[in-house]
Amino acid sequence: MWLLSSALVTLLALTKLSFASSSSGDSVLVVLDPSLDRENYSIFFSGLEKRGYNLTFRAPKDASPAITDYGVPNYDHVILFAPDTKSYAQDITPQSLVGLLSENTNLLIALSPKQTPLTSLATEFSLILPPPDTPLISHHPARSEPPTTIPVPVSSSSPILTPGIPPIWFTGAPHALGSTPMLVPILHAPAESFAADSTSDADSDALVSASEKGGEGLWAGSQMGLVTGFQTNVNSRVVFAGGVKMFSDEYARKELPSGGAPGNALFVKDVAAWVFQEKMKLRIDAVDHHRVGESGAPEMYTTNDEIVYTAHISAYDSRTSTWKPYSGIDDLQLEFTMLDPHIRTSLPAVAGSPGTYQVQFRAPDRHGVFKFVLNWKRKGHSYLESSTTVPVVPPRHDQYPRFLSAAWPYYAGAISTSVGFFLFAALWLAGDVKGERKKGSKAE
Fold first, then answer.
1. For a pLDDT cut of 70, what percent of the chain falls above it?
2. For residue 300, which phi and psi values (nearest 5 degrees)?
3. How confident is the model over 233-256, as a mean pLDDT?
4. Strand 77-81 and strand 106-110: pairing?
5. Segments in 22-110 forming alpha helices (H)
6. How is residue 74 annotated by DSSP?
7. Which of 170, 183, 116 is nearest to 143 (CA)?
8. How far apart, in whole angstroms, are the C-alpha atoms of residue 425 and residue 399?
9. What is the mean pLDDT of residues 398-416?
10. DSSP string for 354-415
């Protein structure tokens, strides 16, 4: 009976995972501030539940349900909608949240203009926040809403977002982007917006003065970010949103100044799909290598061997919750390295074989311990990394060619010298012996 119940539990768990929209699991912990009404975010939360996610809610100061037990995460994803909270339970600290990322748990974090523990967390990911109580302000376009409630155009260049999303409503704090290449910009501030501690134009002289100094101390323009993602080396993801209201039902239904419907609902759906690893998720299924004309990988290669390297790559399809062969990478490269790359060549997709990338190259004329290295990193996509170590040895004594075409002059010289020596010896030994005997007899 116990074995039967264990088997049923295992089967249910596998069935649940097989229908998960995310490639990394469907359990989500939502840390929601008590001042926020859950019903005001029903569009966002119900959208997650319709895609197969299991949502668990708790307050920031609640001790249960715990995020981790003995260092093991209890949830695949964590949503922190507590932008103004200044104190959390013991299991929610900047250090513990960074630890969750190292355990492949994804984070969706909403910030605010106020100084909170999440502010220090954002700086760990190369985000530079303005001084406290400095929200984003824009007086354009003309509207009845306050200057802190801004319709922000959505760029169609981001591969994370669905093309053609209308402007979205935003209220919150901007941030500047650091230099780390792991940042994934998703939404930028409007060009005419700026960050200030007052909604009036009293600080306009300071803005003009800062712009005349080359932008020193200036928080303005489209270089500021409003929603930014970050992907770690282990392919876990985190998104920092400058405000929580952009996820609300109020902003999803609020009419734009132009009279159309906003794109908040579709925008936050795309952001959640990316951070929860529903989209742009790739993996290397297998790699293999062998000599030309062979099928199995040898224990070692010989210098100047012709080598065939093959990689099989698939992409996650959230609609079917399956991995499918993917041939859409056109800039994949292979390196054959020993400390430094000795060979760097493109790894193209094989026509007619989905998900297969293959290249043939000649091993360098140098022996040592080499590596086949794949290292493909592009913004928004999960990183593809693979390393296979192989030795390359010089030819054995019986593997060298018997004759070299470039050495024929030396062969001809050696042969002619040998032939000449034998001819000279033959003529010397076969000389006129009878004549020498006659001269000897006369002398007697």
1. 88
2. -155, 155
3. 97
4. parallel
5. 42-50, 94-102
6. S
7. 170
8. 37
9. 86
10. TTEEEEEEEPPS--EEEEEEEEE--TTSPPEEEEEEEEEEPPPTTTS-S--GGGHHHHHHHH
